[in-house]
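Appendix B, example 12.
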Amino acid sequence: MADLWARIQAQKASLLRDLKPRHLLNELLQHGVLDDDEYERVKRAGVTRKDRTEALLLILRGKEVEELAAFMQQLERLYPHLAEQIRTAEKEEMEKVIPTPRNCRLASSTRDSLTVAWDQIDAVPGGSVEVSIFAHGNDQEPVLRGQVGWDQTDVSIGGLRAGTKYDARVRVVSGQLRGPEVIVEAETKTLWSSVPPNYALVAMVVAVLVMVWVASPGERCLYPKYILDITTKNRPHLFGREEDITNLTMILEKDSVCLVSGLRESFLFLT
């Protein structure tokens, strides 16, 4: 209670300047912040708006944190700039106690895990660094959460989906206190990422050959030997080893696999 009241009191000058209690009194009475007697005391206090604001602040000083929070909700609705000043002071006060992780970044990723790192933070007795993984653009519920001591500088979180974008939210926590969050956009590697590029490209070519062959049975116009010719002519080191494409061609010719004319454009697009 003392902390929230101190932040409200710290903005007394702004409250006296801008606040008009008559805009708040009915809502504060309805939400139980003021009782009937307190309502009348504020309403009849002094002769100026500032007098009534002074009376309201005097009553609020003895209120519990729940009642002060209800006052803040009404202030947010009717005087958002005043509420923002109080909340900014709250954030600055929190940062004095709970540091913000600096230079948060994606250190590495695999198909099912992310490693998030940050610079060494100042000592936080009893504190830790919490990293929550959210689906990218969705902050409703974390997918997974990891936590390490305040003296650590990275954490790895597994059990994620391959080729998926995530938001990693990093913050320092200590007891009930929660520091400001830093968001790091990250993405796990795809299933293809661990396949050597040469073999991945071979697989793509084979896939195109099969799709065209299945889609157009009976048409004969382009043989695998032609693929070898145009490949070695235009990209002689496409597959790393010439025997790779040669072996592929021999297998296809042996089985008398024929291709349609559109394959040439598809293959050249891939290469």
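Residues 195-270 form one domain. The chain has three domains: 2-97, 105-191, 195-270.
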